Amino acid sequence: MKLFLSALPLVLLLSCSSGSDEIMQVIDQPQQKKIIEVKRDNQLLYKFTYNSAGDISEITNYSSNGAVGSTTKVEYTNGLQTKRSMYSTNNTLLSYHVFTYQGKLITKRAIYTVNAGLETLNNSTEYTNDGTKSSSNLIGVKYYDGAGNLTQKSDIVYTDGNGSSVSDIYNSTGTKTGISTLTKDNAHAWDRVLDPFVYQHETNAKSELTKNLDGTTTGYSVEYTYDSANYPLTAKYVFTNGVVYNYVFTWQ
């Protein structure tokens, strides 16, 4: 499953992983707030810029010393995110994601790296949706390496109206390697702007734990504080390996 939002931030933003790609119920609010800044352990981690339509247009990622590390620019076609490009501090293209849809539902994500002007397919992900459902309709994910070889797949079953789910995970040969349990609440997801297909990520993850074939359990759990409109103000992520991150979110 997806690490942090798994370990969160940048990995979630521009890496291919699994699991947290579930569709949630949209929370009906008269006016949606927008997240503009995220701090982790008292250090600036993200700043977000929005276009005139109110959609995310640019994500600035900061390194541990407080300096800008990279900038991700978001492109749209007919209202859907179709490309995310990551640039270095000197405006050199480092990598990009391309998204393919059927209607408004994601079907594929391809991730390319760029080195000295040479673009290379790093990996890709294919998504299976149940189009008869209005929410929680992503039911399968397949992961491929740059050569097009299947590396992993997940089958997803939803367990509540918030988008909580249980996923069976298989390796390239079809052998089951683990079961991942994702538990969601009904509050606004702080990290939905990090997801290229935001219709799948409307509510916060409270925990994501994977029971592996070797008997170990990996993942994380989260404790939130919220404002009166159910937007998260702080979050404490505790990973099974002992790592702890504390987040502070600024909304407007």
Any overview of this molecule?
Helices cover 3% and strands 58% of the residues. The protein has 252 residues and is mainly beta. It has one domain (8-251): Lipocalin (Beta Barrel), CATH 2.40.128. The protein has a 16-stranded antiparallel β-barrel with strand order 1-2-3-4-5-6-7-8-9-10-11-12-13-14-15-16. Strand 13 (203-212) and strand 14 (217-226) form a beta hairpin. The longest helix has 7 residues, at 8-14. It starts with 7 loop residues before the first helix and ends with a strand. This is YD repeat-containing protein. Residues 1-20 form the signal peptide. Keywords: Signal.
SSE diagram, text form:
Blueprint: H1 8-14, E1 35-40, E2 43-50, E3 56-62, E4 68-77, E5 80-87, E6 93-102, E7 105-115, E8 118-129, E9 138-145, E10 150-158, E11 165-171, E12 176-188, E13 203-212, E14 217-226, E15 232-239, E16 244-251
Antiparallel strand pairs: 1-2, 1-16, 2-3, 3-4, 4-5, 5-6, 6-7, 7-8, 8-9, 9-10, 10-11, 11-12, 12-13, 13-14, 14-15, 15-16
Strand content: over 45%
Q: What is the top-level CATH class?
A: Mainly Beta
Low-confidence stretches: 1-29
How many domains? The number is 1
Reading the helices and strands in chain order gives HEEEEEEEEEEEEEEEE
C-alpha end-to-end distance: 31 Å
- What's the gyration radius in Å? 17 Å
Tally the helices: what do you get?
A: 1
Sheet/helix structural class: mainly beta
Helical fraction equals: under 10%
Oligomer: single chain
- Mean pLDDT value: 89
